[in-house]
Write a structure and sequence with these properties.
single chain, about 40% helix, 8-stranded parallel barrel, alpha/beta, 8 strands, about 250 residues, binds 1,3-dihydroxyacetonephosphate
């Protein structure tokens, strides 16, 4: 049986507390008809909007974290602080952080471990650049990101961690990966996870696809065996469009 799917919205640098509060209330109302057992919904706003979101029937996620609990680290936010305000998930290693803010596989690994130690579920992002795909090295790139990001990491339960495959060339471009391109990479990721965590746990970790997901392409992606949901950027800012993706996925679950 496929694991319960996830629809996660990554708001990036959008929506302050007032907008987050309104969105959270409206989303909670609209999710009333969607059975909780069918799909896990996550919303990841900017840090300052997390307390206003008040997740009900869905989960909250941060977009980044630092790995130390406290200290002289100006501008940073710790896993303990996220835990204190009830954050459930945290995106780590998003390609925008890797490309624009110097995130490395080493810092990704420190963040994943620090989050797990506090009981927050990391959403570990991996994905190749266009030139890496053109050079045919995309599977090796992603295998390396995974093994480095998960170095020395242990989990108690397959739901403790989520992997998101986000090809850089598909993010914010409208160039969604074909379902088969995504599935081929998800199979590579699945094999790595099974090797790393064993067939049982590795076989049930949720692997999301991200990159230009919308209501028109989500079903083709979800038809694939190893695609367990979506990490949605731009479209997650629009409540109606976000809900329609959630409903399309929930409808498919028996
Ligand atoms: P878009 O859905 O806007 O392409 O963004 C994807 C993404 O980066 C989610 O983390």
């Amino acid at each position: 049986m496929k694991p319960r799917p996830i629809v996660a919205g990554n708001w990036k640098l959008n929506k302050g507390p007032a907008e987050a509060r309104a969105f959270g209330e409206a989303l909670a109302g609209r999710l009333g008809d969607v059975p909780r057992s069918k799909v896990d919904v996550i919303v990841a706003p900017p840090f300052v909007s997390l307390p206003a979101l008040k997740p009900q029937g869905f989960f909250s996620g941060a977009q980044d974290v630092y790995w130390e609990d406290k200290g002289a680290f100006t501008g940073e936010v710790s896993p303990a602080m996220l835990k204190e305000i009830g954050v459930d998930y945290c995106i780590v290693g998003h390609s925008e952080r890797r490309q624009l803010f110097g995130e490395t596989d080493r810092t990704v690994n420190l963040k994943v471990s620090a989050l797990l130690a506090k009981g927050i579920r990391p959403i570990l992002c991996v994905g190749e650049k266009l030139e890496e795909r053109k050079a045919g090295i995309m599977y090796n790139v992603v295998r390396f990101q995974l093994s480095a990001g998960l170095f020395d990491v242990s989990i108690k339960n397959p739901e403790d961690i989520v992997v998101a495959y986000e090809p850089v060339w598909a993010i914010g471009t409208g160039n969604v990966a074909t379902p088969q391109q995504a599935e081929d990479m998800h199979e590579v990721i699945r094999q790595s996870l099974e090797k790393r965590f064993g067939i049982d746990d590795g076989g049930r970790i949720r692997i999301l696809y991200g990159g230009s997901v919308n209501g028109d392409n989500i079903e083709g992606l979800m038809d694939k065996d190893q695609i367990n949901g979506a990490l949605v950027g731009g479209v997650s800012l629009d409540l109606d469009k976000f809900i329609s993706i959630i409903n399309l996925i929930a409808k498919r679950e028996k």
